[in-house]
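During the second half of the funding period, the structural biology subgroup turned its attention to how the target accommodates small molecules. The most pressing case was PR8, which had performed well in the primary screen but for which no bound structure existed. We therefore specified the complex as follows and requested a full 3D prediction, including the ligand pose.
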Amino acid sequence: MVENFSEWFHDILEEANITDSRYPIKGMAIWMPYGFKIRKYMLEKIKELLDKDHDEVLFPLLVPEAELAKEGEHVKGFEDEVYWVTKGGRNDLNEKLALRPTSETAIYPMYALWIRSHIDLPKKYYQVVNTFRYETKHTRPLIRVREITTFKEAHTAHATKEECDEQIEDFIEIYKEFLDSFGIPYLISKRPVWDTFPGADYTMAFDAIMPDGKTLQIGTIHNLGQTFAKTFDITFEDKDGEHKYVYQTCAGLSDRVVASIIGIHGDEKGLRLPPMVSPNQITIIPILFKKGKEEVMAKCTEIKEALEDAGLRVNIDDRDIRPGKKFYDWELKGTPLKLELGPRDLENNITIAMRRDEGEKIELALDDTLVDNVKDLLDKSYENLKGSAWKFQEEHVKFTENIDEIAELVEAGNVAAVNWCGDEDCGKEIEEKTGYDVLGIHKDAEDGAKCIVSGKDAKYVALVAKTY
Ligand code: PR8
């Protein structure tokens, strides 16, 4: 699978009914029913985490040109990617309207109206919307799309720089918990200046290593400082009566989260879904013969109800096809646990459980231990997926002190970790010499470490990778 990950990924999206990319606009696809459910459970999780101290809002899709153009750096970063609406019916519009590529310029003029006093702060809003980016790089379903259908963007405003910095840490914790719940490993880095979000002071990014060794940026958190506050005049009256600009952050995740779940956990048989997002956490497969059919089906229904009462998502595959085909289908679709039940099992008062992540068959008694045993297997399945994904990541970050070795490591499917003095010139030289991207500062360098380019004292360990 690693050799042809791209092909595997495209095939599985169609075979497992995740998305259909045949829609006649490049970079825009359809969420199919099975994919839509995965998306729904993923969304429920991020909403649960954000709802603890954010409020959900919903802004219009269109942004007036004048607002979009206000913040110089920001507009420069996005100008090649904006879709414009220029007509209403047959009439030319007085002002061009942008399909939001992201919503800073839609939200912040309203923040300027809503934020008056220190009692209005902090303001923490988020929305889940579709955003549009006319991506010029090669588009890929879920990974690089022109309509990002599940853009989860949070925007916060604070009275002080300290609170703003704390918010960055809070987002990091929220994103960790979010990705942990699907067992997705991540590398956190501070992006280099040249790859910082347009208009931000700095950007913290979560990257995941996909099976082909390329990294996927799955989420970003931006410290906006006071740049947008000054552009959009977002001020508040402090306790001492002074008018001050707010400090701001924004953070976003996209459809890429689903891509990482599919790509990182999948295997040659198909998806291996973590229970949190699996449309069915348990699939019951009745083994039916003419004799005893009703009894087996009745028992399957009874098991389903008992598991559902315990809060689990269960389906019975009672299609009139060979059980082998059913096993094949649910392996492809990655249901975490299958329960098989035939007349002989019924006689023995057992069901055969099979975890998707490792495939071993286990007999479970059909008594009041069943629900706990099933939950236990789901937990083990999640832990195993998570553990092996983290292990893969650990094995694929390789340190080197030799710039010529970076290509060797990256071409073998790794992310290279190197000592870096932090100077832009050295960072850019790494990129130019290797053709890969500097993901950014991953951690502080050890005492005595020397920059891989200049040989000066190194401040940081930077990550270098081929990126999506
Ligand atoms: C912001 N403003 O916009 P960001 N296809 C799929 N996913 C994408 C794409 C794409 N074409 N482009 C970006 N992403 C800030 C924060 C509001 C929220 C994903 O930030 O431009 C990437 O995972 O960094 C990226 O990390 C995330 O959206 C946020 O986009």
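Two results from this model are relevant to the next phase. The two ends are 17 Å apart (CA to CA). The chain has a mean pLDDT of 97.
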